[in-house]
Amino acid sequence: MKVIASSLRKGNVVDLEGKLYVVLQAQNIHPGKGTPVTQLDMRRISDGVKISERYRTTETVERAEVDDREYTFLYQDGEGFHFMNPQTYDQLVASPDVIGDAHYYLQDGMAVHLSTHEGVPISIDLPRLATFEVVDTEPSVKGQTASSSYKPAILSNGLKTQVPPYITVGTKIVVLTEDGSYQERAKD
């Protein structure tokens, strides 16, 4: 299916000369003079090679037929990341290349959206927020207010983030899966 280049967004899959590419970043550039262009940063699904292409915003690009469904994350092993379709109980295995940095946020039983092309997983979309426990952080200093600077903390998933000074080891917090930033203390 042909679509206008300016309508492509992150996560879309395009077919260029018979090879599938997932869009990592799409940016519409409107210079003061000249024709507006769309800058696409993409990754070839077959081997992970990254490319960057520019199209006039009115040019068309072949968009691949992709099946987007909700799957449940089961576990990770040497084969890859295992997901199950909750309606049919069919299981899929996604390679670490497809999952990328999203593996830090995957938790048992987490509902995610997987995009597949001809039964092969090609991209993943995580929930916006995830809850993790703080396993290491500096002790809070008496008299320090919540409006002061943040302190570093290590979460149960191994990622580092910045948390307010009143957060202590063992506290569960909610983070944004897009960048791992602190959002709020988890409500138990």
Radius of gyration: 20 Å
What is the annotated CATH architecture of the largest domain? Answer: Roll
Overall shape: flat
Classify the helix fraction into a percent range.
under 10%
Mean pLDDT figure: 87
Strand residue percentage: over 45%
CATH topology of the largest domain: SH3 type barrels
Count of alpha/pi helices: 1
Give the CA-CA distance, first to last residue: 47 Å
Please indicate the count of domains. Answer: 3
Structural class: mainly beta
Largest sheet composition? 5 strands, antiparallel
- Give the ordered list of helices and strands: EEEEEEEEEHEEEEEEE
GO biological process, one term: peptide biosynthetic process
Subcellular location: Cytoplasm
InterPro entries: Elong-fact-P_C, NA-bd_OB-fold, Rib_uL2_dom2, Transl_elong_fac_P/YeiP, Transl_elong_KOW-like, Transl_elong_P/YeiP_cen, Transl_elong_P/YeiP_CS, Transl_elongation_fac_P
Pathway: Protein biosynthesis; polypeptide chain elongation
What does this structure look like?
This protein has 188 residues and is mainly β. The chain folds into three domains: 61 residues, Roll (SH3 type barrels), CATH 2.30.30.30; 59 residues, OB fold (Dihydrolipoamide Acetyltransferase, E2P), CATH 2.40.50.140; 57 residues, OB fold (Dihydrolipoamide Acetyltransferase, E2P) (Beta Barrel), CATH 2.40.50. The chain has a five-stranded antiparallel beta sheet. Strands 14-13-12-15-16 form a five-stranded antiparallel beta sheet, with no helix packed on it. A hairpin with a 2-residue loop joins strand 7 and strand 8. The termini are far apart.
